[in-house]
Write a structure and sequence with these properties.
The complex is a heterodimer of chains A (572) and B (180). With 572 residues, chain A is mainly beta. In chain A, the strands form eleven sheets. Chain A has a four-stranded antiparallel sheet with strand order 6-41-40-39. In chain A, helix 2 packs across helix 3 and helix 2 crosses helix 4. The radius of gyration of chain A is 26 Å and the shape is globular. Chain A starts with a helix and ends with a strand. Chain B is 67% helix and 0% strand. Chain B is built from ten helices and no strands. The radius of gyration of chain B is 19 Å and the shape is globular. Chain B starts with 13 loop residues before the first helix and ends in an 8-residue tail after the last helix. The chains are: A mainly beta (572), B mainly alpha (180). The interface between A and B is large, with 73 and 83 residues.
Chain lengths: 572, 180
């Protein structure tokens, strides 16, 4: 049998098998008329329960019953299981309030499907959406049950250890069945004090890109259901200093300083940081490329442009704008991979040039002319990357991590130190997958990869490595904080552990945030606050934050929580 | 501060209103995408994740994706690229690990005879070649369609297929022919 025939048979078998895959609900906001009768009945039920609850005057005690206690409850269970494609074993109920209308309930059902589809599993991913406001997020985890709410409207509860489930019809914020009303907020659950919280109104998938941008004494956040609004907050108070609506949804914050803020939709727009007055507006529609990263160069602006996959894509490029938004130069940077749509991951200024990185390539372009000065000797394979690799510039040297770990014949990527003037490699270090430059500590280049944390002396070229201390690290003053699923270590300038402690609590997802002697570790299973001295978990919040966290000083930080908004927190 | 002048909305856009509704697109392409990702990853649950994430990406940009000449090619490209990305695969595997024990709609694949062959494909050929093979034999695409999905010239796609067949033939000790 020829190879062709074998492949043909194998392909047919895959096609037939894939037809068994259950098609999940599509993420659409369209209402579901088929649910209307159920939802109407549910509304009636919710209303009755609500009235009972109100008349009873109980502020915290729930109105609850067991499954199958009535036909209505079974109907709710059918609806939940149907709406969630049978994947949730738990039982959901709907409360009254703003969602106490059939249309609102139908929209909520669609929204639930959107979120389930996006994230696949509730316990891992839904929780970031519900930390406070009218929401509840696993607030009774110590009682060994699971629960969550969405927009104050959906509660899922069960007690696995007792083998029973509880249906509840009450406001999600009324608290646990057997406990006091829930008032704990996300910061408090991590042992931090909330200074202010600015709630995000972005819905659906737009939330994933809703990072914030801190500059000067302000912080910019995306708002609006479709990320169609920009709000600039006073960092000290959380008050809205100014806001503006975008002409289109899906806005993106690119960069800002105390003078200017740059955002993009179909257009690239520069506004005054003080009041939002538009300084210039460049229309990218029809260019086939869209801004993805930007960095100020004095009064000018350098922007990395990603190709838009529309059939006749143009190569990725850099463009420089003057202070009036006029294009000074555009340099296309298609590398040796014309078939690839490269995605920029890092953009920075370096000694009269601008260094831009994509997976598999690192370029330096002259700031004045746009001329390509050099291209890195990275492994010549373009791979997709979803996060910056920590590339930075210092004293004439560009430190970069090449994540091209899936290149044929390569077991991992590389970490390099390149002469910013000519691209010559001073240091080339092999790395495992997912290399990331952490920084320089006392003349040691510190980087991480999937195998651990490593350092190389920039002078003696000595190397230290710890393959048992995790793969995410942060430089904090004169020490390196590194975390793994099982340990927290504090390394000295020479890489020697000052101390190492067990810190069991899940896989770290982002580099840790250090506040004083407390390390905040965002992980897949939740976010932990760990005491540096003892390694003990001080507190834990069952939701990972996925947006960035920025330490304002040694005791204060901005933390963005996807779907919930931004917090300014401080040590108590 | 006043809002800029443009009042364009999706509902006002005649191109958008004539495009295939997302829900229909989703139902039509979901299963083929799962098959494509399954071949390229060797993991059916992961394949479902990747298909869903690719469709979520399409949803996020549906106003633009739906305007494309071939939205199917776009989402297949996303699936193919994600499937062969080691980084992405590690994330989805982690997610799957975390979700073990929960209900799954994953098809029963224990009986599949083609598993080893696709594993050989992933071991033996480059990622671009693997994508070309999957598009050819799982999706049944023509050479032109493959080049469209892979965003390359027809001759490049042909080269991917030819080299993949050569390599596989050497590994399997079998003949091959250029019949696409």
């Amino acid at each position: 049998m020829t190879v062709n025939d074998q492949l043909r048979r194998a392909g047919e078998e895959i096609r037939l098998t894939s037809r068994q895959a259950e098609v999940p609900p599509a993420p659409t906001r369209a209402r579901r008329p088929v649910l209307a009768p159920v939802l109407t009945a549910l509304l009636a039920l919710v209303t009755v329960v609500g009235v009972v609850w109100l008349v009873s005057g109980r502020s915290a005690a729930p109105v609850a019953t067991t499954p199958n206690a009535s036909g209505d409850l079974a109907m709710v269970e059918d609806w939940v299981n149907g709406a969630l494609d049978g994947r949730f074993e738990e039982i959901a109920t709907l409360t009254y309030g703003e969602h106490g209308e059939p249309e609102a309930l139908a929209s909520l059902a669609a929204e639930i499907n959107n979120r389930r589809l996006q994230f696949g599993e509730p316990t891992v991913d839904l929780f970031p959406f519900a930390p406070r406001g009218t929401d509840l997020a696993f607030t009774c985890i110590d009682l060994d049950f699971g629960g969550f709410s969405i927009d104050g409207a959906l509660v899922v509860r069960e007690w696995p250890d007792q083998g029973r489930k509880l249906w509840e019809f009450r406001n999600a914020m009324e608290g646990c069945t057997s406990g006091p009303p829930v008032t704990t907020t996300f910061p408090e659950m991590l042992g931090l004090t909330e200074v202010w919280h600015h709630r995000s109104s972005i819905s659906g998938y737009q939330r994933l890109g809703a990072d914030f941008l801190a500059f000067g004494s302000k912080v910019a956040v995306l708002q609006g259901e479709e990320a169609d609004r920009l709000e600039v907050l006073d960092t000290a108070t959380g008050d809205v200093a100014w806001g503006m609506d975008f002409p289109e949804p899906k806005g993106k914050l690119l960069t800002a300083n105390t003078d200017r803020l740059v955002w993009a939709t179909e257009n690239l727009v520069g506004v005054a940081s003080a009041d939002g007055d538009t300084l210039w507006d460049h229309d990218f529609d029809g260019d086939g490329r869209w801004p993805s990263l930007a960095v100020f160069d004095g009064a000018g602006l350098v922007v990395a442009l990603d190709p838009v996959m529309e059939g006749d894509e143009r190569p990725p490029a850099l463009a420089k704008f003057d202070q009036s938004g006029n294009v000074l130069w555009t340099t296309e940077l298609q590398g040796t991979y014309p078939d690839e749509n490269l995605q920029w991951t890092d953009l920075l200024l370096a000694d009269g040039g601008v260094v831009v990185q994509t997976t598999g390539a690192l370029y330096r372009v002259d700031l004045q002319t746009g001329t390509r000065d050099w291209r890195s000797p990275f492994a010549e394979v373009a791979v997709e990357s979803f996060a910056p690799t920590g590339t930075f510039y210092s004293d004439g040297v560009v430190y970069a991590a090449d994540p091209a770990s899936e290149a044929p014949g390569l077991d991992g990527g590389q970490v390099m130190a390149l002469d910013a003037a000519n691209g010559e490699a001073h240091i080339v270090l092999p790395a495992a997958r997912a290399p990331r430059v952490v920084g320089i500590l006392d003349r040691w280049l510190v980087f991480t990869d999937e195998s651990g944390v490593h350092g190389q002396s920039l002078d003696s070229r000595d190397v230290w490595t710890h393959t048992d201390l995790g793969a995410l690290a942060t430089i904090d003053g004169d020490r390196v904080m590194t975390v793994s699923p099982t340990a927290l270590a504090v390394l000295g300038t020479d890489g020697e552990p000052e101390h190492e402690v067990d810190a069991d609590g899940g896989t770290p997802q982002l580099p840790p945030l250090v506040l004083g002697e407390r390390v905040i570790v965002p992980g897949w299973e939740g976010t932990r606050a760990i005491d540096v001295a003892t390694g003990a978990t001080i507190n834990e919040w069952p939701a990972p934050f996925r947006s960035p966290a920025i330490a304002i000083d040694s005791s204060t930080a901005l933390i963005g929580v996807v779907g919930d908004g931004i917090y300014l927190v401080r040590l108590p | 501060m006043t809002a800029p002048e443009s009042e364009a909305t999706l509902d006002d856009d005649p191109i958008i209103s004539a495009a295939e509704p997302y829900d229909s697109f989703f139902r039509r392409v979901y299963r083929p995408l799962v098959g494509l990702a399954a071949v390229l990853t060797g993991r059916w649950p992961v394949a479902e994740d990747i298909a869903q994430e690719a469709l979520a990406a399409a949803f996020r940009s549906w106003d633009r994706v739906s305007r494309l000449d071939d939205p199917d090619a776009w989402v297949k490209r996303v699936v193919a690229n994600h499937s062969v990305s080691l980084y992405r695969r590690s994330l989805t595997e982690l997610r799957h690990t975390l979700s073990e024990g929960r209900n799954s709609t994953t098809p029963d694949t224990t009986h599949l005879q083609s598993t080893e062959l696709w594993a050989e494909v992933r071991r033996s050929v480059s990622r671009q070649q693997a994508i070309a093979l999957a598009l050819r034999y799982v999706d049944g695409l023509s050479l032109h369609e493959i080049s469209n999905v892979m965003n390359c010239s027809v001759s490049t796609a042909n080269t991917h297929l030819r080299r993949a067949h050569e390599r596989l033939a050497a590994e399997l000790g079998a003949e091959w022919k250029e019949d696409w």
